[in-house]
Specification:
alpha/beta, D-Maltodextrin-Binding Protein, domain 2, 3 domains, seven-stranded mixed sheet, two-stranded antiparallel ribbon, 10 helices, 11 strands, rod-shaped, LysR family transcriptional regulator
């Protein structure tokens, strides 16, 4: 069995082709270097060097072993660099979850900036509803989530990422589509399209609370699991809905977007991560998040 010290000794002699100079180079006595080379040759069961009183040269086996040894040390240097980069957070994996409002809003801008700054960090981006993101954060299956309302649990950082005003979405053919001003109370008797409970639970709760504060409870006649499904049902004339203003970033035929003049509330997208997560990639992401949005960590 041989060790790295044997390989270092061999490479020193192979490159210097002189035991005295090689011993001086690696800080060994010449007898100690000779013993080390002998141990290596015995472990390999080959002769690596031809030795005369005047000259040291490599055998064919030594030539082959020198090339392989050089590649071994090059690989070790790459391994050292990889470990150091991972420890510094310049490489590695970061698991990010997002909801509809985040990905249709300003999250793509943040991701673009982060990728430009840290191109060697691999991002695993996953769509998850807010309720599922909370579970994923608790079970540590994601590193950071972008969700509605955050996660009020000890040990988690909640960082205000973006706020969207609420808007009404109407079919283009709706009688109120051409109105200059629209109030939430105007929708009291309208049929509503809503996201399903399992995918849109957090948004439904906030929407119902808004409507109740305006004196009515929405009559839900259709449900969809995705934003595209909601938009399609509204465009088809089956009902109206309340959505985040980030919908303006999307193009969808058959829809009219109307601000709600009597609604001042906003829907907050919060970035959440576990404070005890020591992953260097997460630290780099949090640093970028703070720099991009110009806020300090909560």
């Amino acid at each position: 069995m041989y060790e790295l010290r044997h390989l270092r000794a061999f490479l020193a002699v192979a490159e210097a082709l002189h035991f005295g100079r090689a011993a001086e180079r690696i800080g060994l006595s010449q007898p100690a270097l000779s013993r080390t080379i002998a141990e290596l040759e015995e472990a390999l069961s080959v002769t690596l060097f031809r030795r005369t009183t005047r000259q040291v040269s490599l055998t064919a086996a030594g030539e082959a072993f020198m090339e392989a040894t050089r590649e071994t040390f090059a690989q070790l240097r790459r391994a050292e660099t990889a470990a150091q980069d991972a420890a510094a957070g310049t490489t590695g994996l970061l698991r990010i979850a997002y909801n509809d409002f985040a990905i249709n809003g300003r999250l793509p801008e943040l991701i673009r900036v982060f990728v430009e700054r840290h191109p060697d960090i691999r991002l695993e981006l996953t769509y998850l509803a807010t309720t599922l993101q909370r579970k994923a954060l608790l079970t540590e299956s994601i590193d950071v989530g972008f969700l509605i309302g955050g996660l009020e649990s000890e040990g988690f950082a909640n960082y205000p990422f973006h706020e969207d005003r609420y808007v009404a979405l109407l079919p283009a053919t709706h009688a109120m589509a051409s109105r200059r001003e629209l109030y939430l109370t105007d929708l009291a008797d309208e049929p509503f399209v809503m996201g399903t409970v399992d995918q849109w639970g957090a948004h439904r709760e906030r929407t119902f609370a808004l409507c109740q504060s305006a004196g009515f409870f929405p009559k839900v006649v259709q449900e969809a699991g995705s934003s595209e499904g909601i938009f399609g049902l509204v465009a088809a004339g089956t009902g109206v809905t309340i959505y985040a203003e980030c919908v303006r970033n999307l193009q969808r035929r058959g829809l009219v977007i109307k601000p709600l003049s009597d609604v001042t509330a906003v829907t907050p997208t919060i970035a959440v991560w576990r404070r005890g997560n020591r992953a260097a990639t997460l630290a780099r992401f949090v640093e970028c998040l703070q720099n991009v949005w110009g806020r300090s960590s909560p």
